[in-house]
Amino acid sequence: TCALPISRPSNSYPMTTLSSPAASTPDGQRWAWLPRQGTWKYHLLLLSLGIFVLGPLGGVTASYMNFSLGFFVGGQVLAGLLGSVVTLGYGAEGKHGANFIQTSAASVAGLSAMGVLIQAMVWMGMPQPPVWQLMLYMLCIGMLGAGVGMLYTPILVDKLQLPYPSGFAVANILRALTDPVLLRRSVAKLGTGIGAGLLGGIAAAKLPFMAAIELSTSTLGAGLLVGARIGIPALVAGLTGWALIPYFISIGWLHEGDPARKIMFLIALGTIMGAAIIDLSLIFWQAWQRLTGRTPAPAQSQEAWKRVDTRRVFSWVAFWAVAVVCTGHFVLGQPVGYLVFAVLLVFLFAMVNGISQGISDSNPISSAFVVSVVMMAALGLKDPTIGLMAGTVLLVSVSVAGDMQQDRSTGARLGTSRTLQFRYQVAGIVVGAIVAVGFAKLFMAAYPVLLLDQTVMKAGEQPAEWSAAMTYKFVGVLRSLTDDKPYQRTAIWVGVGIGFAVELARKLLKRNAGYQRFVASGKGGFATDFVLDAVLLPSPYAWSFGGFVNLNTSAWFAIGGVISSAVNSLPKAKPQPGDAVVPEDMSNTSLIGGGLIAGDALAALGLGIVGLLGTVLAGG
């Protein structure tokens, strides 16, 4: 197997489905006035709610957060939580409908946040193409990202079985809210988590003390879902970066006062790439062995929900890859060479970022943009406009592909049809490409301060309510094209070397029969294996998260992981006769962790709407 050698709460899929004893119809539907499941009216209802109601609601929040803060909360959890209210009337099977709503709404919300690319054009004084051209370009890139995401689902979701914390949280929420048996067993824990996440999210935004310690209840919740062997390595990476700040300054990689992650994110991306070389090589080697008949192919899954026509997926990816290049060249006038290079990078970063998101719930899309520009600079790129247009391919497609994997991880736990999920996502991308440009134009027209280039402002001139950190990062790296920084590429290669060496060492050690016997021999072996996994030789995938975020954020992730592992290691009460059987991944820590993520998302939604209304009432 090539499954990642990390410990986490059990999350094998698909999970047991419990039917509702209170169903009013043979198929479990409670409310007769709802359209029957599977009919065109049923899909029209779900699609309309996803792309016209919940999607734009999450989209305006994501746009506001990206313009004001420089990051945004994905729409999966919110859309799943709100969508389950609608599909409650379908009984236990309503979880699939809520998953469909979540899939389409998350695509709209995720693309809506990409309006910062237009803001970057304004800051750099670039001529803006007509609106229809931008929409067409975003549409083609989004479709490419959806196809690549579907292409990688068998590897990331099925083969590696990554946790995908937000996808895990949504699955728990949908199962609990649509099945009375599960609801009775989990409502207190899930409700406690949501309440704590909501209060924590508001406190982190409003209380100076909480802001100072960078409280993130969603990050704490993600730690509860993945365990200590993933949480602690992130803290180890954060502490390593903090300790190396003086050295980085001495060699010119950082300046005095710079945060460690300004260079560590490049090293972190490199470590994922290095480790992925090992894992992908093993996967391709196994595929080659089967093709040549040296090893028997595994029995094909008979689960109907998992079946996807692979030939159609490949054709889809090929068509939209060509469409991206043609649109970028013939419509927007960009050179073919860099567009082709950007499309090729999509296949790399959709895998790299997908693994990062699957482990830590963090999809470093802005880092993918930055690294792609750095790599194009190594090929001789000097024009910021070309860099922005080619980097857009990475930013949008990797974001969409990450959403795809989150949604498929939820669907895998629920047994939801992947083909139907794909169709819902495509519909969301169509609407998302339109509203992304629309929201960007709306915000910048309503708030002229967003048009001001903050990279040339002094500290006292920065608008406090519109920091636009993501745009700031994009413009900074694009302007560096005229001032090449070779050390950035060196940092990436250092990370690749570290990730490759560490993952190779882990693979060799973990497969050694003597080491396996030692680990199984007792507490001493278990403790040694834990220390090796968490501190001495941690998974590069888990370690990398600490390079993307501040030290305090890594600490919250690690705290959640430690709590989860400690609680799940306690002796469990024996089930009593008559107890309902629940899916094995709906543990107490996973329910509370999922609730924390959902509560934090609700807090972000509420704060975003309040902040936007406050700005409107204040006259911008």
Describe the structure.
This protein is mainly α and 620 residues long. Helices cover 71% and strands 0% of the residues. It is built from 23 helices and no strands. The chain has helices at 40-68, 76-87, 94-112, 116-123, 131-159, 165-178, 180-206, 208-212, 217-226, 228-250, 261-291, 310-331, 336-360, 365-378, 384-414, 418-446, 469-479, 486-510, 513-520, 523-536, 540-548, 551-568, 588-617. The radius of gyration is 23 Å and the shape is globular.
Please summarize what this structure is.
The chain has helices at residues 40-68, 76-87, 94-112, 116-123, 131-159, 165-178, 180-206, 208-212, 217-226, 228-250, 261-291, 310-331, 336-360, 365-378, 384-414, 418-446, 469-479, 486-510, 513-520, 523-536, 540-548, 551-568, 588-617. By secondary structure, it is mainly α.
Features:
disordered N terminus; mainly alpha; globular; 0% strand; 620 residues; 23 helices
Give the low-pLDDT segments.
1-24
The secondary-structure class comes to mainly alpha
CA radius of gyration: 23 Å
Helix tally equals 23
The average pLDDT value, as a whole number, equals 79
Distance between the termini: 56 Å
List the secondary-structure elements in sequence, H or E: HHHHHHHHHHHHHHHHHHHHHHH
Secondary structure: number of strands: 0
State the shape.
globular
Residue share in helix? over 70%
The portion of residues forming beta strands comes to under 5%
Largest sheet: none
